[in-house]
Design brief:
18 helices, 4-stranded antiparallel beta sheet, 12% strand, alpha+beta, single chain, 441 residues, 4-stranded mixed beta sheet
Length: 441
C-alpha cells in the first residue's frame, strides 16, 4: 500500500503512491467514520448554516454529487467562518476558522487515510497533535534531558506560525508523499479557501486555519525538516507544534544553536520567531507547556495557571449567585479533574492543600450566604443538605457576623464535602500519579 522512494530525503522516504487513493477516501466505511466523527464533535454551523443535526438530510439528497465531485477532483470547499476565542492567560485572542460540516466531513475522510503513514515518519521528538503522544510526554522528555546535565535551553517560539505557513512549501512537501493529484488539488483549495469575518471576505494567501482536521498534520509536516536537521546535528530537543526546546550544557552552545535555527527558519521556511518568547537561558527561566523545570528536574506549574484555577473556582462559588449545589459541585469536579490530570507533575503538596482549603472555604461561604438570605427558613434548609451540627438562628444575623465565620468549619465539616462527592484537588492529583521529584524518572 505504501512505498518508499530513495529521493524522499528529509521526508523519511514515505510515499503514498496508490493510483486510486481518492477512491479509497470515498469508500463507504471511511466516509461513515468521518461522518460519525463530525457528528460526535458537534460544533457550530459554518458559513452555509447547515448544522450537524441537518447534515444527514443534506447527505441523503447530495451524497452522490459529493462523491462524484471528489472522484473527479472538482470539489470546492466553502469559505470558513472566522470567530475569535481568547488565548490562555489573557494573551490576546486567536482567530479560528469554522468549516462547514460538509467540509469537515471531507477533511476527516482525507485525514483518516493519509494520517498514519505521514505521522509514522515524524520524529520521536515531536509531540504536538499526534496520536498516542501528549504534552506531558514532552515535559517528561525535557526533564530527562535536564537530569542528564543539559541545564541550558534554546527556547524557540514561531510567531503566528499557523497564519504564516507558506502554501507552496507545504504543498511541495505533501506532493512528495501523496501522489494522487485529485487529493492534492482539494487540499490546496482548503488552504486557499477565504474567510468571512464580520461580513467582510478575506482572501487566504498563506497559513492554515486552526480548527480543521488537516491543519495539525500540515503544520507538523512543515516543521518536520527542522526536526530532521536537529537530529542530524545530534541535539537534545523536543517540539510541541511551534514551540521548540533545544537543550545544551552551556550558555554559549544555547546561543549558538538559537541563532542557527532562527536563521534556518527565516531563510528556508520563511518563518519568523517571536522575539518576546525566543531566548537562550537557563532551564529554570524557561516555561514549557504551562510548566517550569529547574536544574534539579523539579517540575512546577507556573503561577498563572494556578491563578486561573482559583479564578474558575471563585466564579463558580460566587456568593451572589445561587445555583443548585449539585450542579455547582458537578462543574467544580469537572474543572478539578481536568486541571489535576494535566498539572499532576507538580511535586508541591502544599500548593494543592491550600487550593483544597480555598475550595472548601468558598463553598462554605456560599452555603451560609444562602441560609442568611432564607432568614427563618435558613436553619431548616442548611440541615436538609446534611449539615446537622448547625444551631444558628439565621433570622437574627447579618452576613458579616463574625460568629458564623468562626463557626463555619463546625457547621459544614470536611466530611460533608466527601459525602456530597466533591473531589479533593490533592487526592485527584495523587490519583493520576505524581512526577517531578528529584531523582524520579
Amino acid at each position: 500500500m505504501y512505498s518508499k522512494e530513495e529521493d524522499s530525503g528529509d521526508l523519511g522516504g514515505v510515499s503514498i503512491s496508490i493510483p486510486n487513493l481518492m477512491e479509497i477516501i470515498c469508500e463507504r466505511d471511511n466516509l461513515n467514520a468521518a461522518y460519525k466523527k463530525v457528528y460526535r464533535n458537534r460544533g457550530i454551523p459554518g458559513i452555509d448554516n447547515i448544522s450537524v443535526d441537518a447534515m444527514n438530510d443534506w447527505l441523503k439528497a447530495n451524497k452522490d454529487a459529493l462523491i462524484n465531485s471528489l472522484l473527479d477532483g472538482t470539489y470546492v470547499p466553502r469559505p470558513v467562518k472566522g470567530i475569535y476565542i481568547p488565548k490562555p492567560r489573557k494573551r490576546g485572542i486567536r482567530c479560528i476558522g469554522v468549516l462547514s460540516v460538509i467540509d469537515r466531513l471531507v477533511q476527516n475522510a482525507i485525514f483518516q487515510i493519509i494520517c498514519d503513514p505521514i505521522d509514522n515518519m515524524f520524529s520521536d521528538h515531536s509531540f504536538g497533535f499526534r496520536r498516542n503522544r501528549s504534552a506531558l510526554d514532552a515535559i517528561q522528555l525535557a526533564r530527562n534531558y535536564i537530569l542528564d546535565g543539559y541545564k541550558y535551553v534554546a527556547d524557540i517560539d514561531i510567531e503566528k506560525f499557523f497564519d504564516n505557513i507558506h502554501h507552496d512549501k507545504v504543498m511541495y512537501k505533501l506532493s512528495r508523499i501523496v501522489h494522487d493529484k485529485r487529493v492534492l488539488k482539494i487540499v490546496r483549495r482548503f488552504l486557499r479557501a477565504g474567510m468571512w469575518r464580520y461580513d467582510v471576505y478575506i482572501e487566504r494567501v498563506s497559513g492554515v486555519y486552526q480548527g480543521g482536521s488537516l491543519s495539525p498534520l500540515l503544520s507538523n509536516l512543515m516543521l518536520h525538516e527542522v526536526d530532521v536537521l536537529l537530529e542530524d546535528r545530534g541535539h537534545k530537543f523536543c517540539r510541541y507544534a511551534d514551540d521548540i526546546k533545544i537543550y545544551t550544557k552551556s550558555q554559549k552552545a544555547a546561543d549558538r544553536v538559537l541563532l542557527s535555527v532562527e536563521k534556518y527558519l527565516s531563510q528556508t521556511l520563511k518563518l519568523k520567531c517571536n522575539e518576546r518568547k525566543t531566548k537562550a537561558c537557563r532551564v529554570r527561566d524557561s516555561e514549557f507547556l504551562g510548566y517550569n523545570i529547574d536544574e534539579n528536574g523539579r517540575i512546577t506549574a507556573i503561577q498563572e495557571n494556578i491563578d486561573a484555577l482559583k479564578y474558575k473556582i471563585k466564579k463558580l462559588t460566587n456568593r451572589s449567585v445561587f445555583r443548585s449545589l449539585k450542579t455547582m459541585i458537578l462543574e467544580l469536579n469537572q474543572i478539578i479533574v481536568g486541571w489535576t490530570s494535566y498539572f499532576r507533575y507538580d511535586y508541591r503538596q502544599d500548593i494543592y492543600r491550600d487550593l483544597d482549603t480555598m475550595l472548601r472555604r468558598r463553598i462554605r461561604a456560599n452555603i451560609i450566604r444562602r441560609a442568611i438570605v432564607l432568614r427563618s427558613d435558613g436553619l431548616a434548609w442548611i440541615k436538609s443538605i446534611g449539615c446537622k451540627h448547625c444551631n444558628i438562628d439565621f433570622n437574627r444575623i447579618r452576613w458579616n457576623c463574625g460568629l458564623v465565620t468562626r463557626r463555619a468549619n463546625y457547621i459544614i465539616r470536611n466530611e460533608w464535602f466527601s459525602e456530597n462527592n466533591l473531589r479533593s484537588i490533592l487526592q485527584s492529583k495523587e490519583k493520576y500519579g505524581a512526577r517531578g521529584r528529584t531523582g524520579d524518572r
